[in-house]
Amino acid sequence: MHFLFTNNSPLIKYGLAPGLVDIGHDASVIGLWQIPADQQEAYLKHCIDRVKPDVLFTEGFPGLNWNALEAVKNARGVPHIYWAIEDPVQHPRSLEIASFSEFVFTTTVECLPSYAARGHRADTMLFACNPHMHRRVPADLSRSHDIVLVASNYHQRSEQVKKILLPLIEDGYDVVVWGYGWTDGEAPIQLPAVNYGGGILPYEDLPGVYSAAKIVLGLHLVEDSRTQSSMRTYEALGCGACYLTYDTLAHRSLFQPGEHLLCSGSAEDTRRIAAEYLRNPDRRQAVASAGQALVYKEHTYAQRASELIRAVESLR
Hints:
Layout: E1 2-5, H1 10-22, E2 26-29, H2 40-51, E3 55-59, H3 66-76, E4 80-84, H4 91-98, E5 103-106, H5 112-117, E6 122-124, E7 147-150, H6 158-164, H7 166-170, E8 175-178, H8 206-212, E9 215-218, H9 231-238, E10 243-246, H10 249-254, E11 262-264, H11 267-278, H12 281-298, H13 301-314
Parallel strand pairs: 1-2, 1-3, 3-4, 4-5, 5-6, 7-8, 7-9, 9-10, 10-11
């Protein structure tokens, strides 16, 4: 089968698209959001006529002209699959897009009943890792730090920041953060300049930075879903990092804290865990190795691609 992805995000470019190729299918990736809205319909028609895909696939809210996408997919008779990666935070908007999608995937199992209630075919599809990309590599020594976080500063995560990140900065650890909003004065929590790596870390640099760190931190927008976590969890584990993340229901449902990753729900826990694992490299490596082994076994984009293929086949 041939899939045309309308968004060229790292999630697709380094994740689901190569996952499809790994299992013997074809994938074309375009950046429809980069085309002016009034030109997207013509451009999408051109792309469909050129590559003749079996399926259109969109994830998230990448700034598309949704009316144009709906018109083109109907005119060309190509089914559209939508991956609602912003569930549950933006679930009402996901439901709108589901109305012109033949199948919906969501990262949040708790959202399935509302899709079903509106007659939408839906299933869960979680984030994952790509072992070709998310793996241990030679450490990026120019950006080598004891503790790193690659995440933007959303106000919804302020309480997690206070429990996961700030205690380590306050205690004087070698901590560096990459992402938007940490020093611009707009978010409620701002970082000292010494702890800021500067802007968004290029995605291609992620494995080198994670491979150089002793501990990689995780923050999340959702705490009470059994399945939804940030992409960061799978990426960090895939890179063989010792991953210290906020304690959420998904992490306890999908992983074994203390074996595959480290979870903290308070500043006190964060301080204790960081001190314990920074002074014990053997324990860090044991957790990192077990976490990587688990995601390589159960959470790869080749496996997610197989889930996608089954969904498409169910439409026939």
